[in-house]
Fold:
Amino acid sequence: MSSMLAAVLHDFDDLRLERIPAPQARRHGEVVVCVKACGICLTDYKAIRGIRRNVTFPSIQGHEVSGVVAEVGPGVVHFRPGDEVIVQPSGYCGYCEHCRVGNTHYCEQSFVTGGDGPADVRSGAFAEYLLTEQQCLFAKPPGLSFDAAALTEPLSGAWKGIIHYSQMQVGDDVVIIGVGGIGLLCMMVARAAGAGRLVAVDVSDYALTHARELGATYTVNPVREDARERIYEILPDGPDLVVEAAGPIEAVRLMVSLLRRGTRWNVFGITTHETFELDGGLTHFLEARMDASFGTTPLAMSKAIRLMERGLVDVERIVSHRFPLSEIHQALEVMASPERNKIIINP
Structure:
């Protein structure tokens, strides 16, 4: 594997399929993974299209990864060539204060393969091979497909936000604002955890149709009706938990408008620096609680793997399109369409 095919981003909207040198596992703990599947995250799409500007060129995007170990470096004892693995995109030192208490995504020496967040951004998985470290690998359960395994990272984020941070309880009435790929995963986690009534909110009828198929008990389209009014018709006492998984600031404002006593919010989707207002008195006296969630941790990855392995969440149901790496430009065109869910690249 002296060379490999990769989708190299040279500038915004300048993505080129090229043959480049394949990575080698030379340093302690390094592992080369032959990529079998990689999901396209909106983070990747925004980087390629220039919507997200914190990108250093040239770069290789893609951070939702599964594959097969191709080569191991010195000191690698837990994996060997041929092992089927799931890759956590975020690496960490394991020794700083944040790592010691389990918040590895806060690590001051962190790195990410093909994603966003830390200063150390390494080449991602829109390529035939990926270089990572053994601490970022998880064994893929034998009964799990590579496509499903590639979605461990976004599913882990959904578990982390819904269960670990917002502490959803059995019987809670949950509103999910935005039911694209990550919103659907949040909805499926909530359903598996015993949500009472699940209300899916989206401006896309295509997305709402899939939400109903995957377990939403009610759907609301803000283009067609007053979303707050309709939600309170469905849930007269208001929601227990509201998850903003859409991204636009309007979704966050809708989330805030649904406030009632004891409401929990999770600001999950928005990543841009925009502002919204809170009524201090209402927030105080109604004891509203706001959480947010980004990134993943080894705990969240392990929980996501268990959800899939036990058959509690079938992530392949959100996959709408698959493309070989050679057709990544066509995949990006589909990403721009409202009629798609998760897109998988199979190098």
Q: What stands out?
A: The chain has two domains: 3-150+314-346, 157-292. The first helix runs from residue 42 to 49.
